[in-house]
Task: inverse folding
């Protein structure tokens, strides 16, 4: 799975959102989340206390209660976002995404909307599986990160999103390489070519391109298309002249294409 130093960043960002209400009781014995009418001060501070104690799911439930019992208070909006954040810390990613999406739908112009969108994107990102697994969530992470960059390019979250987009693209390219190598092992050379060309054309800035070009050289030679093999090797030599992949591709051309 893809990982980065994310949670400390998220904790620092959220710190400004969990300030206590002025003159409020903490209500240590009032953490039960079944419906009991309570004032907004007691509820919000009980949620904040549970968050500080790392009881993230209970904190999320209490933040939800703030909105449910006091939907028109000034603290309801903040509680919505803190609920999403608490679910994220609990690794309850679907609930975090749902809460953050709800916040954005109700408060699209709010100054914390970029943070809510970042919560959605990072929740998808942290669910990415290795390249042997289905990559649907990887694509969702990419779409969410790109939406964040597009809508809030100058926000503090966009820079981190750009870094993660590069990592996600490399991961998706790795998936194509995995499939392409599988087809090679089965001697299904045409199917392999299709996958390696996707890497070269769609994920051209990733670390997998040199190997993809070498694999294209192999596959084209196996298909009996030496001109395409030479072309792939030439691109590899032009862009990655010192790589081990070029040395291997060049050796194949010298061995299997007599006029090379």
Result:
């Amino acid at each position: 799975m893809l990982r980065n130093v994310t949670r400390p960043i998220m904790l620092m960002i959220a710190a400004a959102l969990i300030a206590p209400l002025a003159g409020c009781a903490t209500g240590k014995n009032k953490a039960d989340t079944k419906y009991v009418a309570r004032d907004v001060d007691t509820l919000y501070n009980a949620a904040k206390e549970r968050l500080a104690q790392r009881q993230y799911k209970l904190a999320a439930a209490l933040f939800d209660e703030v909105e449910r019992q006091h939907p028109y208070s000034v603290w309801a909006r903040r509680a919505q976002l803190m609920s999403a954040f608490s679910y994220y810390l609990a690794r309850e990613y679907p609930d975090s995404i749902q809460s953050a999406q709800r916040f954005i739908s109700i408060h699209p112009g709010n100054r914390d909307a970029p943070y809510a969108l970042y919560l959605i994107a990072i929740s998808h990102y942290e669910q990415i599986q290795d390249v042997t697994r289905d990559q649907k969530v990887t694509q969702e992470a990419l779409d969410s990160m790109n939406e964040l960059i597009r809508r809030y390019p100058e926000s503090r979250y966009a820079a981190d999103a750009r870094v993660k987009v590069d990592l996600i693209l490399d991961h998706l390219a790795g998936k194509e390489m995995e499939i392409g190598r599988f087809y090679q092992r089965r001697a299904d050379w045409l199917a392999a070519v299709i996958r390696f060309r996707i890497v070269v054309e769609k994920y051209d800035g990733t670390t997998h391109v040199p190997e993809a070009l070498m694999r294209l050289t192999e596959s084209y030679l196996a298909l009996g298309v030496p001109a395409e093999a030479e072309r792939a090797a030439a691109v590899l030599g032009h862009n990655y002249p010192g790589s081990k992949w070029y040395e291997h591709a060049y050796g194949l051309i010298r061995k299997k294409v007599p006029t090379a």
